Structures are given as C-alpha cells and as structure tokens.
Amino acid sequence: MSGQFKQQSSEIIAAACALSRRYGLAAVLAVTISASAGAWADDRLSIVTWGGAYGQAQEIAIFEPFAKETGTKIATETYDGTLAKLKQMIGSDAAAVDVVDVSAATLGTLCNDGLLEPIEVAILTPGGESVEDDFYSGAISSCGVASVAWSMAILFNRQAFAKNQPTQIADLFDTKKFPGRRALPNSPRYTLELALLADGVEPANIYSELATPAGVERAFKTLDKIRSDIYWWDNPQEPITWLLEKEVVMAAGYSGRIFRAAVGDKRLGVIWDGQIYDLDLWAIPKNARNKDGAKRFITYATDPARLAAQAQLIAYGPMRKSALALVGKHPVIDVEMKDFLPTSPDNFKKALKFDDAWWSSQSAELTKRFEAWWGAAAGQGKPPEPKIQESEPSTPPAQAAP
Question: pTM, whole model, 2 decimals?
C-alpha cells in the first residue's frame, strides 16, 4: 500500500470524524426545526437504509439538508439488506417505516407481494428534459425510484503490463497478450456474464444467450481459456488484497472497493468495459404512516443536485444523466469522482444490468454445472498462505475491515 494512500486514508478518517462531530452518525437523526422553517415542521419521517460509508453519504448529502429545508424530523435505522429483516420491519400495521432503501431484487419481491406503495412519475423533479428520459433505463418502476448504481468491474496492475495496457473485457480472458493470474468471484453469478461479454455477446443479449445450452457451453468454453490462471474469491476484499500483493494481475471486484484501491495506488487501473451493475432504489412501504412526506422525500432525494452531492462523497453512480454533469471532486481527497462512477457516460457504454430474477430461476442448475467445472479445473484456488518464520511468535490475524 502506497504512502499516498496511507496519507489519503488518514485525511478521510479525520474528515469523517469531523463530519461525525458536526452531523452525528447515530442510528437516529432527529433534527428539530422551528415551525417557521418550513411548511411541514410537524412532520416525522422514518427511513430504513444501509449503514457504513453509504449511509453516511446519504446523511450528509440528503437527510440533513432535507430536514433543514422542510422542518422534518428524520429518524434513520440501518438494516442488513436481507429481505426477511426488511419484511419484519415493514410488514405489520404497527410498523413506523415511511421510506426504505432497497436493492433491485428486494424491490421486485416486495412489490410483487403487495408490500409497497405505488409511486407516480409525476412527483419526480424534471432535470432539463422529461423525467423518463433523464433517468437511465430501468431506474423508475411502479414501486420504486433508483438513486444509484454500483457495479462489478475489472481492476488491474498497470506495472504488470508496461508495454500494452488492457482496455476491454476481452482482455481479462487473454492470457497470451496479458499474462498473469486473474481473480474472479467463486460463483456462476457475474462470472458467466463476464465470460459471455468477453466473448462478444452484447449486454442486451446476455441472459437470453445464457438461457440456452449453447450459451452455457460458450461461457464455460471462454472460462476454459484462463481456468489454470484463476484465483477464486469469496470475500469481496480478497481480489483487492491479492492485486495489491501482486498475487494476481487482474481482478473482478465491486466498484466501491475499486475506487478506494485505485485512488490510493496509482499502479492500479480500471476497465469499465463490460461492467455488471445493479441498483439501489427508494420505496414506500404500504403501511407507511407519512406517505405524503415519504413522496416529498423521494422527490428531494432523487433530485439531480442531491444525487450529485451524494456521488461526490461515495463512488456510486447517479441514475440521472443530469446529475452527472453536476458531480465534481471529492471534498476530502480532491479526486474527480466522475472517473469512478459506474454511470458516467464513458464508463457506461457497454454495461450489463444484473438480473437477479433470472438467476433465481436458473441458479440451482448453473451452480451445479459451475461446481463440476470448477472441480475439474487445474491450478485453481487461492494464493498460498504466507509462511511465518519459526522464530517469529504467531499472532491471531487482524479482523478484516468491512
């Protein structure tokens, strides 16, 4: 890890502490404004969202300014992202949840189960063109509105390819031109999509191709090209660590972790060609007590200016085109955030929307096939554990950061 990254990490931590002192990062944010501050001073809004850096970015870019501008008291609660937990939180009449931040898969299930309130496009703020044209395709559904996209992309070591740098997804599967080990997720999900994208299948045709026996064969035939050079990861931090430690030269990883690694180490480059993205969306539970306030909040939270403010704090791509034009540098590390956003025009040219619903019906069969192929492949696994000299006392491993 470079000295520059350590310095930037210290700056980020210091800034986070300052923001924590200023805004507060407790599970409940209660901002009380006098009645004269806005027309809805007596409103209360309960929001369930994710924690960590994502939740902190939402608090600074969206929750706190919304509370100030409207006089609304906002209470936030974090959850683990599981469908069962969320159903428990919103499913009873006694629930006091007004807005939820959910994945695309969770939204689809909750909507089909009748647990979400319909959302009309008319409530959304225009962004210089019609709302439907301003949002990327698939961002608006009958039960939710997408705010950001995160993705799986390819990170590589520039020094490993001094003469010729990889630039496209096909290069991940070309060990003759770009030799060295690769890190891929230990699952058919994402892995088979990457293989077909690398073999020239257009994003719009990936799942129809993968639904056929010929398409499955095509994906595994592409994987065969590099199977002796693959390290399989289970923890999303593993491919980043292996890349920094030079165990692999290219790795498929999640965009948020890719951002943190790439801004900290200039040896690392990113291939956005063939990225596989998914969405986070705002939705309103059917049992919400403050549905009007929830709609006002979603209007505000998906406004181009708010999406841009959030994108300047965390490397998730706004799902509105007009928001991208407003994104500037990260306020702490002075990095142009557009370069690291999945939905930036240059990064989004050949992107595939991950289809969780499709995988729900196909997962069992393809997982069985993948495990059989994986077991037959030679030279796979993970990097060997580092040897500890006998003279050195053994110490328990440090707990991995989330």
Answer: 0.84
What confidence tens digit (pLDDT) does each residue in 211-249 have?
A: 999 999 999 999 999 999 999 999 999 999 999 999 999
Give residue-wise pLDDT tens across range 266-298: 999 999 999 999 999 999 999 999 999 999 999
Residue 401, amino acid: A
Q: Mention every residue, 6+ apart, whose C-beta is less than 8 A from residue 21.
A: none
Query: Token match 């507060």: residue?
Result: 24
Q: How far is CA 20 from CA 12, 13, 62, 172, 315, in A?
A: 12, 10, 15, 41, 20
Give CA–CA dist 358/70, Å, rounded. Answer: 41
Q: Are 154 and 135 in contact (CB under 8 A)?
A: no
C-alpha span between 398 and 377 (Å, rounded): 32
- Look up residue 294 and give its two tokens: 């929830």
Sign of the dihedral through C-alpha 167, 260, 230, 357: negative
What domains does the chain contain, in order, with CATH numbers? 3-149+278-340 (3.40.190.10), 152-277+356-376 (3.40.190.10)
Which residue in 335, 305, 332 sits closest to 318, CA to CA? 305
Which tokens belong to 282? 């705002």
- 323: phi > 0 → left, psi -120 to 50 → alpha, else beta; which? alpha
C-alpha span between 50 and 54 (Å, rounded)? 7
Q: What residues are paired with 154 via a beta bridge?
A: 252, 271
